[in-house]
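for ur thesis appendix - Peptidase S74 domain-containing protein. copy paste whatever u need, i formatted it the way the template wanted (i think)
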Amino acid sequence: MSLSFCLNAQDLLSGGSNSWIFHTPDDGRTTLHLTSMLNGSWQWGKETVFYNNGNVKFNGELGIGTSVPMGKLDILLGGWSNIPRVLFKQTSDNPSMRLYRPSGSGSSIYSWWIENTGNGGLNFKYGYGSSTGSESPVSKFTFTNNGDFGIGTTTPDSKLSVNGTIHAKEVKIDLIGWPDYVFRKEYQLLTLEEVESYVKKNGHLPRISSADEVEKNGVLLGEISKKLLEKIEELTLYAIYQEKIIKEQNQKNKDLEKRLSKIESLIINK
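the 3d part is after this line
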């Protein structure tokens, strides 16, 4: 069946008190309205409107695969026991789905986009605008096709890349090679003179990256934790060694004081 929009106020009715109506207005609008009659009253607030540009407006809820939609659009394929599938297909490289919410009287729009990057990745973008919410959308989260996830960056180079500050109650890192080896007898501890010579020549501690290297390549949290503990354990050995020297020196001083006291006593009693 086809209807011509050239006809004015063309109505097609079916049924009795609970009828359906196809209606084309006679006020110049080129639209087709579909709605129902419930207990003798037309439900225009729940109408479906077809426009001549191909757009369709649903004032009710639309269910695909279900007669009891639970939202404005409810798609159910194969029942809950099977895997449902909703497709958003576009011939360009960046098909997307947009979620937006008007604020206040509707003059401000806050929008989120879920966008296919075209190379297997996925971007979550945020945009704000005075009318459309599409002004300068910025990618906030990015999934790549190899499973990397970026926050604040569109080019994550690890399973999690964050361009910003992370606030956490605790961070756990799996490590091997914890530097207990410093306390083994075979460990070659540099003398303080050797450390001093190295620092004067290189400007940083042995086995610790320079400032230039850190600025260029960053640091691995696990590795730097091990190296810093290594230096703490070396400092502990230096402190133990210095403590032994101090005790030996104190004992020598006490012996000298005793000898000096005896000499003074002999001179006085002479």
